[in-house]
Amino acid sequence: MRLRMPAAAVALAGALALVAGSAGAATAEPAPVAPKVDPVAWTPCNPDPSKPDPGIYDCAVYPVPLDYAHPNGEKIGIAMMRRRAADPAKRIGSLFLNPGGPGGSGYLWATTTRFEKRVTDSFDLVGFDPRGVARSNPLRCFTTAEDADAVFNRMTGVPVTAAEIDGTLAATRDYTTACGRNAGPLIEHMSTMNVVRDLDRMRQAVGDRQLTFAGFSYGTLIGATYANMYPGKVRAVIVDGNVDPQLRLHNGVEYDRQRAGGFELALDEYLRRCAAVGAPRCAFGAGDTRAKFDAIRDHLRTSPVTLPNGSVVTLSTFTGEVANALYAQTRQAPLARSLQALQQVISPAPAFGLAAEPQVPVAEAEALAVPAPHALREAPADTPYTSDDSYYGVNCQDKPYPSNPKVFANLARAWEIEAPTFGRYQAFDAPACATWPAPAREVERYAGPWNRHTANPLMVIGNLYDPATQYRFAQNMQRELDSAVLVTVDVIEHCAVGRSKALNALVTSYLVDQAVPAPGQVLKPDLDPFPAV
């Protein structure tokens, strides 16, 4: 469990000055070429033991140094899974995959179906959990689930009142104190720089002379960092759903402010497209969708809504679920039904001058709510804490922030002026980094340069309305890298590979044939978020 899903208008000048002053303090130069490493010891495994073993997967735990300043010292294990190339005669090498996060588990991404057959014929697909994540020596700030709940349950995802803000900041400080007490030495070595060092060792360990890699969301920072730490080792690197490396590694506050703007852009386009197709294709499409949405949000700022099943829609659950739905087209028609159902509960009479609006079952609104509690039951004492805290473990080491948590309440007030739905939401994603035990200003991390000449060009993919990593970030990624081509997809979604046949054809040619796409292409997705009914 983490504090909540990350989301981030005018940042306060004082906060920006604090951040800018610390930005370059811990920048590290690229690591020297790693010494010869042992090969991976693969063992056959079944990714889904509930089904017959397909006989095409292998697993391993690969040892890497905890601290690269002491490469012969303590080791930690990186959990890896590979899907062997379907056509050994055509095998080129390994395609390493990272789904983002930070803290996303990539282990089972060896089973992904995002790629065309020519890719799976030609490459071993290799998924892995980065250091501190899931199966790879998980970074844990608590020893029991009860201890974690005692802290997390005091936090509000989108705090508005003084009591909510004070309670959230106090609980966040307790969280980072627990991290310092329980996480162990790994907490000092979680930066993306160390993930990339691990990746280069794994590349050598599978026998590849150069790296073939696809990184999604935060995984794009892994790809960009690798390209600049090991530029001669780049064979083909795809970065999809891009961060802005320069901004992210030098000014966490401004990066988060622009993230909030990206979510707002995606929401605006979502509401526009919903209105354009109208009801019933988009269940929320009758009337002024923007005005209706804003009325729901503003109502929830002061008045949570209790649904017939007892579950409660709060500003926090509402904002988080709207953000989540913008990540994928398949969630956007259901979101429209949930919004329409919630409006029916809040305003039973026709609103905004409409004689009648389409009615949907009120139960649709439950997707925006906190689940109603079940019957009371006795929880066993000292339930093991099985989540990990790698999200902050990486973010707080990569992104420099002010050290005063109170700054974030001021940022929230400023940001929600230009990002009324997601400004406050994004501002309260980062307070943990203010008191993190091993912050960016004190650790070894890679913060540039980003323009080292690579052995082969990179492929950058950006969606016009990506909520989590706005299109501007993809444009900046392409400009900051020495040699990269940007391919654009006109879609409201986070990341695009596997969502467009036209894009996947370019991806396949790039990975298999090393054919760099022509620049300036704008592609369409395969699906319509509001299919005709």
Automatic annotation (TrEMBL):
<keyword id="KW-0378">Hydrolase</keyword>
<protein>
    <submittedName>
        <fullName>Alpha/beta hydrolase</fullName>
    </submittedName>
</protein>
<dbReference type="Pfam" id="PF00561">
    <property type="entry name" value="Abhydrolase_1"/>
</dbReference>
<keyword id="KW-0732">Signal</keyword>
<dbReference type="InterPro" id="IPR013595">
    <property type="entry name" value="Pept_S33_TAP-like_C"/>
</dbReference>
<dbReference type="GO" id="GO:0016787">
    <property type="term" value="F:hydrolase activity"/>
</dbReference>
<feature type="signal peptide">
    <location>
        <begin position="1"/>
        <end position="25"/>
    </location>
</feature>
<dbReference type="InterPro" id="IPR000073">
    <property type="entry name" value="AB_hydrolase_1"/>
</dbReference>
<comment type="similarity">
    <text>Belongs to the peptidase S33 family.</text>
</comment>
<dbReference type="InterPro" id="IPR029058">
    <property type="entry name" value="AB_hydrolase_fold"/>
</dbReference>
<feature type="domain" description="AB hydrolase-1">
    <location>
        <begin position="95"/>
        <end position="274"/>
    </location>
</feature>
<dbReference type="InterPro" id="IPR051601">
    <property type="entry name" value="Serine_prot/Carboxylest_S33"/>
</dbReference>
<feature type="domain" description="Peptidase S33 tripeptidyl aminopeptidase-like C-terminal">
    <location>
        <begin position="420"/>
        <end position="521"/>
    </location>
</feature>
<dbReference type="Pfam" id="PF08386">
    <property type="entry name" value="Abhydrolase_4"/>
</dbReference>
